[in-house]
Specification:
The chain is built from six helices and 16 strands. By secondary structure, the protein is an alpha/beta fold.
Length: 281
């Protein structure tokens, strides 16, 4: 495992205009790199935010290498010589459906890994908001890890956060850091964002790096919660971006992973058990 490194979360208010979003990421990433960031992350739906399925389809390409956002971010990672995780970009996988795909670029601008969001956000919220991701997106089937110079990274996206078994599996497969790029709604974010992220860090003994979308989005009027977070393996909030567009930084010491797991070695304490339904009296 490598030494201490600096990680950054870029907090965005992405619109339906791809080139504007690319420009914002490029500017913020350059600022974060100038402050010493070696691993920079962006939220879910970095390249485009819109509820209109037709717009998402039109904005996506079958060949990911032909996607303008993929090309721009590959070049950016190479220019800045950083590891760059783009929370997600829609990539066409069928005539009317796309994958919500996360990309990890290495300091040479190569695609080191990618991950398709597994869990689809199909919900009706109490305030009347309705989301049906499965209408536009095809869910992924595989959990993904990749070795960074400082340790092993586990990938996930947004609604995956509510499925703790995914993160336990990543941790047991050697993850030291977990990224959770998101576009959490303001409603669910206010209720659950901080709590769930801290829980995932504590349960796994991993650093959690969670870049988020924020504010009211011009592309469709939705409101996202913001509060990009970097959390230690002990569950401490190391940095919180609040509600403004910008970025946060934190120094990541991989040795803290082993220390946290030694103090509470729950990853080694799983046991087989049976579920028993007792008859009502």
């Amino acid at each position: 495992m490598g030494g201490v490194f600096s990680a950054a979360c870029l907090q965005l208010n992405s619109s339906a205009v791809i080139h504007e979003n690319i420009a914002t990421v490029t500017d913020l990433a350059r600022q974060a790199a100038a402050r010493g960031a070696q691993f920079i992350t962006t939220p879910e739906v970095t390249s485009i935010v819109t509820r209109l399925q037709a717009d998402v389809i039109r904005a996506s390409t079958f060949a990911q290498d032909e996607d303008p956002a993929v090309a721009a971010f590959r070049a950016l990672a190479g220019q800045l010589r950083i590891w760059l995780l783009i929370g997600s970009i829609p990539i066409r996988v069928a005539d009317a459906q796309v994958a919500n795909r996360c990309f990890l670029f290495d300091p040479k601008g190569r695609i080191a890994a990618s991950y398709d969001k597994i869990h689809m956000f199909d919900v009706d919220l109490p305030n009347g908001e309705r989301y049906r991701e499965s209408k536009s997106f095809i869910p992924g089937q595989c959990a993904v890890l990749h070795d960074l110079p400082w340790g092993r990274l586990g990938l996930s996206i947004c609604y995956d956060l509510r499925f703790p078994h995914l993160y336990r599996s990543l941790a047991k497969a050697g993850a030291d850091f977990i990224t959770i790029p998101a576009a959490f709604t303001k409603t669910t974010g206010e209720a659950h964002w901080h709590i769930l992220l801290r829980a995932r860090a504590i349960e796994t003994g991993c650093f959690v790096i969670a870049p988020a979308q924020t504010g009211t989005h011009s592309g469709d009027g939705r409101k996202t919660y913001g509060h990009s977070l970097i959390i230690s393996p002990w569950g401490e909030i190391m940095a919180d971006a609040g509600e403004e567009v910008g970025f946060i930084l934190a120094e990541i010491d991989p040795e803290r992973v082993g220390k946290a797991r030694a103090q509470v070695p729950s990853l080694t304490h799983d046991v087989a058990y049976q579920l028993v339904n007792t008859p009502s009296s």
